[in-house]
TrEMBL record:
Membrane-topology annotation of the record: Peripheral membrane protein
Entry's Gene Ontology cellular component terms: plasma membrane
Species this chain originates from: Natranaeroarchaeum aerophilus
InterPro entries hit by this protein: AAA+_ATPase (IPR003593), ABC_ATPase_HisP-typ (IPR030679), ABC_transporter-like_ATP-bd (IPR003439), ABC_transporter-like_CS (IPR017871), MetN_ABC_transporter-like (IPR050086), P-loop_NTPase (IPR027417)
PROSITE patterns in UniProt: ABC_TRANSPORTER_1 (PS00211), ABC_TRANSPORTER_2 (PS50893)
Localization of this protein: Cell membrane
Protein name: Amino acid ABC transporter ATP-binding protein
Amino acid sequence: MASETAPLLRIEDLWKSYGDEEVLRGVDLDIERGDVEVLVGPSGSGKSTLLRCVNRLTEVDSGHIYLRDVDVCADDTDPNEVRQQIGMVFQDINLFAHLTARQNVMLGLRRVKGMDKDAARTRANEELDRVGLGDQTDSYPAQLSGGQKQRVGIARALAMDPEVMLFDEPTSALDPELSNGVLEVMAQLVEEGMTMLVVTHEMRFARGGASGITFLDDGQIVERGPPEQLFENPEEERTAQFFQSIS
Ligand code: ADP
Ligand code: MG
């Protein structure tokens, strides 16, 4: 039963190993509707693995992930359904090179949502407009900057009408000036009230846009709280060390 008070996304005692290596060790995380949770932690701490589990790109060993009342990890839950409701933007920008920006966005609308061509085209134009690429709809990926390609990726995810958006270091492959356009789009999504779980080293975004920060280290959540707490007044020594090391 869906409950009025249940979080939109609930991650419960999640465990994941690769061979002998325990990558996630009992992660619990609740995300309320409209939350913008920024996930930080050292390289190899399990951030990408956590996001991949939520998007059902990686199978968990034990624990649960619920999107409202849907058990994301259940055998009878269709991963493709999950991926419509939980959009994901990756560090590596994976557009189809032989398709224009619009065609890249249209693909899911046609194949997954089953829209006819005209409706998909209109919707793709709208989503590209939303990410500031209304004048690039006919461009091929090779004609776009890294930041523009990343924004096409965001438009493609948004076109599915997701309830939650996951971002895995969306700007870390980009030059600083190209990051800005992507960060502006993410800030706009925050304004629109989108529920987001964001892995990023962009502390400006974290300070300005996050409702909460989660610090993950060695597969465990060390500390979670509002940005002021984690940045200015962390309860854990390890958190303080981490923020010192990246500032
Ligand atoms: P982060 O995103 O925080 O840098 P990851 O989740 O990518 O961390 O990786 C956590 C650990 O899991 C790393 O030690 C990494 O090498 C390992 N790992 C991630 N994906 C795989 C995989 N598909 N196979 C084996 N090991 C993996
Ligand atoms: Mg990662």
